[in-house]
């Protein structure tokens, strides 16, 4: 009883983010602290068998039972394919099968030469599983995580800010100037202005190269202009 | 807390007792004594050559289960089948090389039952005499060669 009170008082964050389990008993929670103790144990344990509500709240027995059954069904979607528990430190394979990371890691280590998805036997590897991060992921600490290596990092690719810019980046500096010297006139102007911005950003690092680059840029610009003038006149 | 193998076996047992599979029965008393040794009775499926017959399978689990496959043997009356030796050993890839931890007792029983169902005539494997004389007691120690993909 006292433990449940301290939980409620000391950890408001935990209370805000309770699972639906606790939400189903909001009245009981305030009236009977013992109920809230029950449900908090229920939440933390990995068991998801139905626990009957206290006898004196008989009016709410039926809806509670329905809620719990529904929850049980929902939970079964998130059962690890190896330990048959609700997946902890969950990872998902590229073929879409859910596992606890410690379970899957153990399997991968059992057969390092033949790493297959336990469910569909698709080829999998440590680098190609995706960890799932829930809202309160950090709080659920699995004791087995100490024994097994940490989960692989999620991969996050930076978004493209500007498509034009990225296109230019792929050229080397020399190739960049050369290609625009030959290219059409409006692109030369366009290109060199972009190039100017790019170099100004790197200005602090090496000034001499900046000057050299700018000189080259100007030379090529003039060559391009002369080339076009010649084309038009001839 | 019990070890992971035991924990998973209890879950499988609960699942098989709450949602029994047709033609597959578990000896609850035996399992209650030792969770690592199961006796499962399977019935020959209807409209197959094993209809009306029942066979017993013995499952032994080690502490590495489900990462390591269980040892599965026929005990008592051995069905006459081209992939089942007269000492009860079963030539089935999922029991050794193709085992995955996503398989379960139920899945193995289902596979064996379907293996029996797909047979068209009762015969022992061609190398039954030699194998039963030379093999180890543990079928997992046999290096199996799987050549019949139709099962």
TrEMBL record, chain A:
Ranges annotated as biased composition (Polar residues): 154-163
Claim: Flavoprotein is one of the keywords in the record: no
InterPro entries: RNF5/RNF185-like, Znf_C3HC4_RING-type, Znf_RING, Znf_RING/FYVE/PHD, Znf_RING_CS
Coiled coil: none
Ranges where the RING-type domain occurs: 80-121
Catalytic activity of the protein: S-ubiquitinyl-[E2 ubiquitin-conjugating enzyme]-L-cysteine + [acceptor protein]-L-lysine = [E2 ubiquitin-conjugating enzyme]-L-cysteine + N(6)-ubiquitinyl-[acceptor protein]-L-lysine
Keywords: Membrane, Metal-binding, Transferase, Transmembrane, Transmembrane helix, Ubl conjugation pathway, Zinc, Zinc-finger
One GO molecular-function entry: ubiquitin protein ligase activity
The name this protein goes by in its record: RING-type E3 ubiquitin transferase
From TrEMBL, chain B:
Catalytically driven reaction(s): S-ubiquitinyl-[E1 ubiquitin-activating enzyme]-L-cysteine + [E2 ubiquitin-conjugating enzyme]-L-cysteine = [E1 ubiquitin-activating enzyme]-L-cysteine + S-ubiquitinyl-[E2 ubiquitin-conjugating enzyme]-L-cysteine; S-ubiquitinyl-[E1 ubiquitin-activating enzyme]-L-cysteine + [acceptor protein]-N-terminal-amino acid = [E1 ubiquitin-activating enzyme]-L-cysteine + N-terminal-ubiquitinyl-[acceptor protein]
The protein's name: N-terminal E2 ubiquitin-conjugating enzyme
Keyword terms: Transferase, Ubl conjugation pathway
Keyword Transferase recorded: yes
Biological process per Gene Ontology, one example term: protein ubiquitination
Enzyme Commission code(s) on record: 2.3.2.23, 2.3.2.25
UBC core domain boundaries: 8-139
Gene Ontology MF terms in the entry: ubiquitin conjugating enzyme activity
SMART domains reported in the protein's UniProt record: UBCc (SM00212)
Transferase keyword on record: yes
């Amino acid at each position: 009883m006292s433990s449940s009170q301290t939980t409620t008082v000391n950890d408001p964050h935990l209370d805000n983010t309770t699972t639906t389990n606790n939400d189903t008993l909001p009245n009981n929670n305030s009236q009977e602290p013992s109920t809230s103790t029950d449900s908090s144990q229920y939440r933390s344990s990995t068991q998801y068998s139905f626990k009957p509500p206290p006898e004196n709240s008989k009016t709410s027995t039926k809806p509670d039972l329905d809620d719990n059954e529904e929850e049980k069904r929902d939970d079964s979607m998130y059962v690890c394919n190896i330990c048959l528990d609700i997946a902890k430190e969950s990872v998902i394979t590229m073929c879409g099968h859910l596992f606890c990371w410690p379970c899957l890691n153990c399997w991968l280590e059992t057969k390092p030469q033949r790493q297959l998805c336990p469910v569909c036997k698709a080829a999998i590897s440590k680098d190609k599983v995706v960890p799932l991060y829930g809202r309160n992921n950090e709080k659920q600490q699995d004791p087995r995580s100490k024994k097994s290596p940490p989960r692989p990092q999620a991969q996050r690719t930076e978004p493209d800010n500007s498509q034009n810019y990225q296109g230019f980046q792929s050229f080397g500096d020399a190739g960049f100037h050369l290609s625009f010297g030959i290219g059409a006139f409006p692109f030369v102007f366009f290109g060199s202005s972009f190039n100017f911005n790019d170099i100004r950003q790197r200005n602090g690092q090496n000034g001499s190269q900046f000057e050299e680059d700018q000189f080259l840029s100007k030379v090529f610009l003039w060559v391009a202009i002369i080339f076009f003038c010649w084309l038009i006149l001839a | 807390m019990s070890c992971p193998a035991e924990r998973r076996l209890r879950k499988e047992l609960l699942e098989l007792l709450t949602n029994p599979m047709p033609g597959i029965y578990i000896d609850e008393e035996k399992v209650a004594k030792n969770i690592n040794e199961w006796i499962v009775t399977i019935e020959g499926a209807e409209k197959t050559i094993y209809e009306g017959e029942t066979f017993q399978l013995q499952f032994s689990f080690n502490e590495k289960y489900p990462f390591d496959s269980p040892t599965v043997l026929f005990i008592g009356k051995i069905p006459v089948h081209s992939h089942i030796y007269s000492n009860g050993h079963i030539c089935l890839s999922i029991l050794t090389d193709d085992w995955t931890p996503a398989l379960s007792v139920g899945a193995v029983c289902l596979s064996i039952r379907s293996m029996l169902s797909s047979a068209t005539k009762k015969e022992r494997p061609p190398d039954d005499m030699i194998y039963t004389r030379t093999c180890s007691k543990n079928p997992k120690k046999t290096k199996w060669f799987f050549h019949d993909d139709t099962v």
